[in-house]
């Protein structure tokens, strides 16, 4: 998970087990080059106020 913020240092971001991102556009471009144009990318503009969830493809049992 990458985090773009002006409130935390890169070290503080890493201590939270996240990766610092200085440019969303550049990071998305880099990830698409790495994983291909069919890659799924999720951007949460209000990250701390958003709770993402994944729907299971099959029941978890």
UniProtKB/TrEMBL annotation:
This is Uncharacterized protein. It comes from Candidatus Hakubella thermalkaliphila.
């Amino acid at each position: 998970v990458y985090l773009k913020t002006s409130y935390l240092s890169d070290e503080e971001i890493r201590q939270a087990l996240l990766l610092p991102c200085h440019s969303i556009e550049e990071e998305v471009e880099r990830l698409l080059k790495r994983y291909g144009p069919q890659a799924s990318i999720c951007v949460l503009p209000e990250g701390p106020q958003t709770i993402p969830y994944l729907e299971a493809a099959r029941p978890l049992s």
